[in-house]
Design goal:
Strand content: under 5%
Number of strands: 0
Structural class: mainly alpha
CATH class of the domain at 81-146: Mainly Alpha
Largest sheet: none
């Protein structure tokens, strides 16, 4: 199989890999022994290159482009999603695809405070110490509430087929990011 080249530098791919696994920018600094300013600047450029508005969308696109796999994500909680209410599952799914609480509140005719309370209840129920949205996205992926097919459907503009084989896979090609360069 040919190698995918992303519109990112090797350093940016490293940083994206760690961010997608749920590390904060400060933790990535310590892991890669870089300055905060450097990691923050790379993070901004990665978001621009992948057209991602938040860390959750970066994680989803890292999975989509096979920079990380679901198996590489940290186990967030062993609590089964069946113990969550329908309303909690709906909010969890909204957060897991990178949706802001404000848009969920407007859609459901709830106050932002009520959505924040529901999010906090979900985090408490799952035993999460922090309320980072990336952890909720990881949980949804690990519980099968969100699949790679769902992610592909969320971001169809990021998915194109190899022009040489028209998506037949004849040369061992896979779906790839649009600005990836590849030769057979």
């Amino acid at each position: 199989m040919t190698q995918i080249r992303y519109p990112l530098s090797p350093r940016q791919v490293d940083i994206l890999r760690w961010l997608a696994k749920g590390m904060s920018e400060m933790e990535v600094c310590e892991e890669l022994k870089l300055s905060y300013r450097s990691v923050n600047s790379h993070s901004y450029r990665i978001q621009a290159a992948l057209n991602a508005h938040c860390i959750v969308v970066l994680c989803l696109k890292a999975l989509l482009f096979r920079i990380v796999s679901i198996d590489e994500l940290p186990v967030i909680s062993t609590v089964q999603h069946s113990t969550l209410s329908e309303a909690q599952l709906e909010l969890l799914n909204h957060i897991a695809i990178g949706g802001p609480l404000k848009s969920f509140a407007l859609k459901k005719h709830l106050s932002l405070k009520e959505c924040e309370r529901q999010r906090d209840d979900i985090c408490a129920h799952l035993g999460l110490e922090s309320r980072r949205r990336i952890q909720l996205a990881h949980y949804a992926l690990q519980q099968g509430l969100l699949s790679l097919t769902d992610i592909q459907n969320l971001y169809p503009e990021d998915m194109i087929q190899c022009p040489d084989c028209s998506g037949s896979g004849k040369y061992g090609c896979e779906i790839r990011p649009p600005s990836a360069l590849r030769s057979h």
